[in-house]
Amino acid sequence: MTTLTILVTGGSSATGIAAARALGAAGHRVFTVGSDEVRIQAAASEAGNGVTPLVCDLADLGSVRALAEGLHSRGVDGVDGVIHLVGGWRGAKGIEDQSDEDWDAMERSAVTTLRNVSRVFYSQLEASPNGRLAMVSSTAASAPTAAAASYAAAKAAAEAWTLAVADGFRRMQAEEQHSAAAIFVVKALVDPAMRAAHPERRFPGYTDVEDLAAAVVGLFGEPAANLNGQRIVLAK
Questions:
Q1: Please, which of 32, 108, 154, 181 could form a disulfide with 20 given CB 3.0 to 4.6 Å?
Q2: Can you give the three-state secondary structure of the chain, one letter per residue?
């Protein structure tokens, strides 16, 4: 099996830990990225399998460029995968009380971080024989509610950006598709801590973080032409 170099952004979350652990167990070189040094170091330690923690403010383009330069200084010639797991949630009662603060927060976490990471690492992903960009979206993007308007709109924008990246790969690889950008769609995610805190709940329709992690690993075993521009629905 080919060992690939993969970035897991939003690596401090339960989802990030699960994805980094699964990718490391599959034999890949994994760098997990977060904005808080203590949290990302703890997350990398929990993931194990040689996962390396990196600190970066992904909402700042200059910081993401510095991240790429730092990887190069570590001897990383190119990144083969970016698994973008930066999340966030803001809700309200309806349209009238969707605050600017909530919108700014959602735009920053869901859209700006994705734009920065994909722009900085696009050429590396396009050059890789196994280039993959993946993000996690929500069923709310295609079925928005008034209460979740800001959240749904930001997720929809992130999906559109990812599909645009997919189009870029498609145009540059017309003869042989080897890079792909894809979207995982979930209703919500559940992890062991959530189950332990609420043993009475069944979490209907939720996707377990371990199932998402397995799907992430599977991206690198599936032909790019089958993945590029796809919305992979994991919601149950």
A1: 32
A2: CCCCEEEEECCCCHHHHHHHHHHHHCCCEEEEEECCHHHHHHHHHHHCCCCEEEECCCCCHHHHHHHHHHHHHCCCCCCCEEEECCCCCCCCCCCCCCCHHHHHHHHHHHHHHHHHHHHHHHHHHHHCCCCEEEEEEEHHHCCCCCCCHHHHHHHHHHHHHHHHHHHHHHHHCCCCCCCEEEEEEECCEECHHHHHHCCCCCCCCCEEHHHHHHHHHHHCCCCHHHHCCCEEECCC
pTM: 0.95
Domain boundaries, the chain: 5-233
8-35 per-position pLDDT tens digit: 999 999 999 999 999 999 999 999 999 9
Residue range 126-150, pLDDT digits in tens: 999 999 999 999 999 999 999 999 9
Pick the CATH number of 5-233 from 3.60.21.10, 3.30.420.240, 3.20.20.70, 3.40.50.720: 3.40.50.720
